[in-house]
Amino acid sequence: MIDWLKKSLYRTLLAWIIVPFVLVTGVRLVDIYVTTHARQSEAFDRQLLAFALIVREHATDLDGQELARATVSLLRTTFAGRIEYKATLPSTGYTIGNADLPEPPSEKKPAPGNPRYFDVDHKGVSMRGVALTTEVATEAGRDIMHIAVFRENALLGARVRGEVIRSFFYQVVILVGLIVFLVIGIHLSLRPLQRLRQSIRRRSREDLRAIDHDLPEELRDLVEALNQLFARLKGSIEEQDRFIARASHQLRTPLAELSLATDMALRSAPTPEARQALERVQSGARKASRLASQLLQLARSESQLTVVSTDRAVDLVTVAGDTLRDLVPRALRKGIDLGLESRTEEADVAGNPTLLTEMLVNLVENAIEYCPAKSNVTVQIEKRAADGWWTLAVGDDGPGVPAEQFEAVKRPFVRLDESRGDGCGLGLSIVDEIARRHGGQLELRSSAEGKGLLAIVALPPFESRQQTEGQAPPG
After folding, report:
1. Is 423 left (phi over 0), alpha (psi -120 to 50) or beta?
2. Residues 433, 441: Cα–Cα separation, whole Å
3. Residue 411 DSSP class
4. For domain 2-174, is the CATH number 1.20.144?
5. pLDDT category, 171, cuts 50, 70, 90?
6. How big, in percent rounded to 5, are the helix, strand and coil portions of the chain?
7. To the nearest 10°, the Cα dihedral for 32, 38, 42, 47?
8. Exposed, middle or buried by CB within 10 Å (0-12, 13-18, 19+), for 68?
């Protein structure tokens, strides 16, 4: 229960406010019951005494028969509830009223002039009684009369219950109204916090702008701390990007010089052994240059500062045509048939054209690198019927990848066969990262013929990305 409250500031505030009010209301209801019972009991006793005084008044002026008729008529018309009385002359045993009524308890028998109150059960009915004594004139002279008046306790209980129920209803109405008021008030008070949460959730990974300070004072320190964190993070990312760019440049320049030098040396190699050694050096330089280039691509694709715009439409057909045109010479050198199949003239997606080009280059270069000579590499572009997303698929009839390794090869530096190709295991990692940056996904399959690999990148259409921009990511 405590953990459930701690997980929500809203519930915690409500609990800290409502629980004390509920406890106070409960104490108040107990107090109302006690006070009401005491007040009604006092009023009840005063009425009993009034009954007894009426009986005494009539007993001193009327004979017994007239006393009975007049008193009963008066009591029944003036007071509610069952009322019984009896007046007794102990000296003669003469009794008027209900002679079956019980005698007051001995400790409650009144002294002259002092009424005494008591509770008795009469024939299974709980009754409240009052007893008093008075002097009356008889034929034998002055005598003492004992008067007792009884009334059902059920009437007192009904009065107390009625008043307590009314008070309980009023207290519940007040409490419910207060709770509703508090719920609305807390909800409105927490709206700035909800707006702050939504503002942060709507941000893309690369958006490190400062948060607006137009918030209540209690949130300004938090927002200021977040803004400082964003600023430090942005500076750190910028420094990292600069370092990677410098390192990549510093690596590629000497590697290019080394590759050029080995090309020249190969032309004048004096012996087959020297030529073989130079070819190994050239292969290593080419592999290191490709690694440096792909590391830079991976850093650029992962960088929070590389903008993936949702306001710019990029045509996948154009990107594919330009990319394949540049890669055709490399495919021809290896004897690979490189082709493009598109069922549409335009396939607009929102994003960064440089990153999308790098994504396709890596997919096609991977296929060329690992496919043997006389293989086929085909790029296909089409719209997926299920959701209208564009798919960019690169299929080949090379050695392929086992299905259980599809997820593993998406991780950096994972190669299933070190002996094939000059790759370094970064190509699919770059493709996967760029696809996710564009709101899409990379899926690997075996080709339809069961031979080779089919890499499918699904990307939302341009209109879809514009409509969903600004919405919180699913959580």
Report:
1. beta
2. 9
3. S
4. no
5. confident
6. 55, 20, 25
7. 60
8. middle
CA–CA distance, 285 with 374 (Å, rounded to integer): 26
Task: Kindly list the domain boundaries of the chain, sorted by start residue.
Answer: 2-174, 202-306, 309-475
What is the average per-residue pLDDT within 7-19?
78
Could you please state the CATH topology (level 3) that the domain comprising 309-475 is classified under: Heat Shock Protein 90 (3.30.565)
Taking domain 202-306, whether its CATH number is 1.10.287 is answered by: yes
The helix (run of H) or strand (run of E) holding residue 463 is helix 462-468
The candidate with the shortest Cα–Cα distance to 18, out of 169, 176, 166, is: 176
pTM of the predicted model over 0.85: no
Residue where the block lists tokens 């199949």: 341
Integer distance in angstroms from the first to the last C-alpha of the chain? 24
229 or 109, greater pLDDT: 229
Backbone angles phi, psi at 387, to 5 degrees: -135, 0
**Token pair in block for residue 256:** 């290019």
The β-bridge relationship of strands 94-97 and 390-396 is unpaired
- Whether 393 shows a pLDDT value over 60: the answer reads yes
CB-based contacts of 117: which residues, under 8 Å, 6+ apart?
Answer: 45, 48, 108, 128, 129, 130
Distance in angstroms (rounded) separating the CA atoms of residues 132 and 284? 124
